[in-house]
Amino acid sequence: MDRFTAPEFDRAGLLTIDVQKCTLDGQSFEIPGTTDVLPYIANLAGVFRSVARPIVHVVRLYKPDGSNADLCRREMLENGAELVLVGSDGRLPAPEILPRADIEIDDEQLLSGALQEIGPHEWLLYKPRWGAFYRTVLEEHLRSLGVSTIALGGCNYPNCPRTTLYQASERDFRLIAIADGISRFDEKGSRELEGIGVSVMNAEDCGRAIQAASTG
């Protein structure tokens, strides 16, 4: 970490990736460890809200016929797999990470590529592939809010969080990976990210730094 990669906590935004009901324990698209990281993501989101810093919850939405899904999942969906399906309860973000438990997804709005505002400084965004910057307005949105640093938590490291962090690095964002807020994140992943200038922090330490920056 140096002056080019060190987080600017007073210009930070939080991204949550694919923390949706059906990825939790016992659900149709269960990803091991995602339920375990929920409290850490939720607590950090609370800190960002308390200091009016931006939060974007990035989600997947699959059409039942699989037509908008990754190629590796289309056959599963054609065969009836219930994976973050449009209109299903499982596609909803885990309520613990949201500002209110009664928030509903506007599928049509999100699939069109638009952001859905769900609170002050807080949005939902649909991504059509692994990385949150692929064919989305995420970069433009974050730049318009003055965000230079992205803190990221979510599900699950080898796929979408990892891809999103690399995409963000390619766009010269400063980056924080929330070690206890990313499912299937391990020491190997930590070393990998540190090698490209990503700061690896736990949620509590990141939250303290965000609060400290907000008070000057």
Give keywords.
about 220 residues; alpha/beta; Rossmann fold; 7 strands
Please give the share of residues in helix.
25-40%
CATH superfamily: Isochorismatase-like
Tally of separate helices? 7
Instruction: Give the strand order, joined by hyphens, for the main sheet.
Output: 3-4-2-1-5-6-7
Please give a structural write-up:
By secondary structure, the protein is an alpha/beta fold. It has a single domain (about 10-215), classed as 3-Layer(aba) Sandwich (Rossmann fold). The chain has seven helices and seven strands, in the order E-H-E-H-H-E-E-H-E-H-E-H-E-H. Strand 1 (about 10-15), helix 1 and strand 2 form a beta-alpha-beta unit. Helix 1 runs parallel beside helix 7. The longest helix is centred in the first third of the chain and has 17 residues, at about 35-50. The model has no long low-confidence stretch (mean pLDDT about 95).
